[in-house]
Design goal:
This protein is mainly alpha-helical. It contains 10 helices and no strands. The relative contact order is 0.13.
Amino acid sequence: MDWLIVAVAGYALGSIPFGLLLALAAGKGDIRRVGSGNIGATNVLRTGSKGLAAGVLLLDLGKGFFAVWLASRLFPGTEAVAALATVLGHCFPVWLGFKGGKGVATTAGVCFALAWPIGLAYAVLWVGMLAIVRISSLAGMSAAVAAPIAAVLIGRVDLLPVLAVIAVLVLVLHRANIARLRAGTEPRVGRSR
């Protein structure tokens, strides 16, 4: 029963579409009609507002962290369930016809809450790759793949299954980006799509 409560709560928290809500509140319109149509921070950045995109990034990261942290306090041992449910909620929110974000920022928050060294490895690789290649999708996918590897390296093999599932989910949701990367047409941050 604890797992079910955590799963439902995690999904509900994860499904809050901060990108859509903040863009509407800022008068930017429906973010789903801009750029890639995604509700994440990278697409919000395409509205021209760096501050708004940073806010979405922090809120999406925060909901991932908070869901897992809360589960650890109220239902110890259900953190992995909270992690997966929250990322699923972000990627497939019922309120938006199951069309949400790609899970990169929310996964960062989840990683920090599960084990801060994993979160740190995730963040360093994500930001480092983004600074070097200026391709948001590649940076996000690299960080997601690095998370289960980091879990093994720090001896948290118990977190390997959930982080591996999340990494696969992030990769699957980026399949169009992968195709554009292979074709050399994936847009870089700061450039017009």
